[in-house]
Amino acid sequence: MAKSDNILASASDDDAETTLSASVDMDTPTHRGDSIAALLCLVGGLVGYFLIVPAAVYVPPQFAGTANSPAFLPNVLFLILAALGFIYLVYSVAAQLRNPTQGWAHPSDWLLAGGTALICVGYVLFIFGIGMTLGSALCVAVTMIYFGERRPWLIGAITVILPALLWYFFVKVAHILLPPSWLGIMDWLEAGITHDGMTRMAGFITSLGT
Amino acid sequence: MIEFDQLLQSVPLVLRWEVLAACLGGVIWGMFVGVTPGLTGIMAVVIALPLTFFMDPQTAIALLLGIYVTAIYGGSVTAIMIATPGTPNAAATVLDGYPLARQGKARQALEMALYASFTAGILSTVVALLIFPIVANVALAFGAAEVFAVIVFSITIIAGVSGDSLLKGMIAACFGFLVATIGQDPIHGSSRFTFGVHDFQAGMHILTLLVGLFTIPEIIVRGIEAYKARNTATVGDMGESMTFRQYLSYWRTYIRSCIGGSLLGALPGLGGSPAAFLGYSVAQRFSKTPEKFGKGSLEGIAGAEAGNNSVCGPALVPMMSLGIPGDTTTAVLMGALVIHGLNPGPMLFEEAPNFVYSVFLLLFISLIFQLGVGSGVVRMAKYVVRMPTQILFPVVLILATYGTYAVRGTMVDVISMYAIGFLGFLMRIQKIPAAPFAIAFILGPLFENELRKSLIISGGSLEIFVDSGISITFLTLAALSAGASVYFHRRLKGSNAAKFITN
Prior knowledge:
The complex is a heterodimer. Chain A folds into two domains: about 1-105, no CATH class; about 110-210, no CATH class. Helix content of chain A is about 70%, strand content about 0%. Chain A has nine helices and two strands, in the order ααβααβααααα. By secondary structure, chain B is mainly α. Chain B has one domain. In chain B, about 75% of the residues lie in helices and about 0% in strands. Mean pLDDT of chain B is about 80; it is low at about 495-503. Chains A and B meet through helix 3, helix 4, helix 5, helix 6 and helix 7 of A and helix 10, strand 2, helix 11, helix 21 and helix 22 of B.
């Protein structure tokens, strides 16, 4: 049993006091978490070997079963992963049996982490929806507020300046096309801000002055 | 050997204002590109290439060399400050650089990266200059089996960066190798794990993986901290400067990592990232305090930066002497020489010896300019550490997304980056170390490619790996290194140092 405790970082003795509490800090891995991770590795390795590799790797018939097959290394790796997952599972279950009262990481930490993850997912969806520039403006504002920033002028300034600078640098300087969006708002805006359009607008403003 | 008459004759060729100005411009542009995640050295050189059409050969190569040399160092600045490698070469620098920045020693980390880069750059260029033909011949002696042996030796570093649990390190490495197999098979070209997505055919880009693995988990964790601290959290403090004594104390590390990096630099197709990890590995193997690696060791930064920057000079040797580019950037440099009417290969030294020597002199000048510009960047970095976390990390999130997208212009990379990021976060919670994942991903394709090429050459026989002295030497070193790693790992197990490595 002592040996099993030593092989996992989470099962060291000096963590014992922390792990006795009902909820632990997110920086403290739990034995249950270890068991779940180990199970995922084991199942992932087996699923990879038996299902994913045959379905997702094309093997030319003349190389089937040889070390020169495109599936050779993935198969070996999935088997190793399954074997390591099994060892990991044995040790983590053993550690869990020894210390069954260990709880989960603090729920509020999980909520905060989940919120950030949700913002990231939302950001990607917004890039597809309203484009990278407007999506970034929205994302940076939401993330700053979520992380605790409360000064409106600062949030507003960064929300406007950062995406605008990035748009100018990537599109105009580095000539990297930003991804097209479903609504195509930036394409529409950019088409509106043509040289002729700007000239006409300048002429209109000048005429107002005179 | 070096011909001093011709070396002296080439001095006036490079000491012209337009050549020096082009070199300085290249260094500044290279630094900018290096510190911008997503813009790689190769991209910087390609963007600048059209400008060289209107320049003479010396001025053109001065501009391109300035970019080539500095972009490698520039990537380490963001790696240290915000855990985001600006270029793939800086992946190993994150391991110790970012922990140092969090401990309030960002200035020391940045200065060590700068001075180690400079020192190794100078040393490797001197080596390349002095043993120009010998290096070329040694590089030619490396076949697939020999390169495979070098890669196996480099892979043994995984044990050293696995922290408290070798088992978890091996699982992480397994993931890294598996992700590296996505895309076209290197020998037959058949698709693996692409699931019909065309953008997966080229595999996952190294920067996509590095940003996902190191930056996204950091943003999530720092977001939690920022929320709790409310306007008080910052990255850390710049701290004190590194002393000259500290710099000198790592002279053995510079030399050892430089030898490893120079060797990989001279071998075609390997590049700076494996050199950085080899340099880091060698530094850890010989260190008196290997337990400090991964928790914020200046020696670790010295090893990684000396490793990746010592690639530049030697990479030019096979390109100029044999017409074989050492990496993608030197392939573009080779193209630039051809555009200017020079033909890299065995005849270049006969036809234009002054030009060859001027290239090496320009490397020295680029490194000196890099030292000056880099010192300015170190001073400016204080603005990053003073920035509150709740502003810095949202900005980093946006930069990481743009940077990942810019590499290949596909949203598949962005989605992959976030997917790897969430996986990295879950790994971090369970203390499964990220470094073995990254190392396996970088070395995995080289490992498989050279293994399978060797097996094809030998008709499936494993004897090819013990046929030459070079491969026997490296495989023996790999076995010794792995044994030593396991031994030290058992000694360190459960210690606070090992936990820090995992953290």
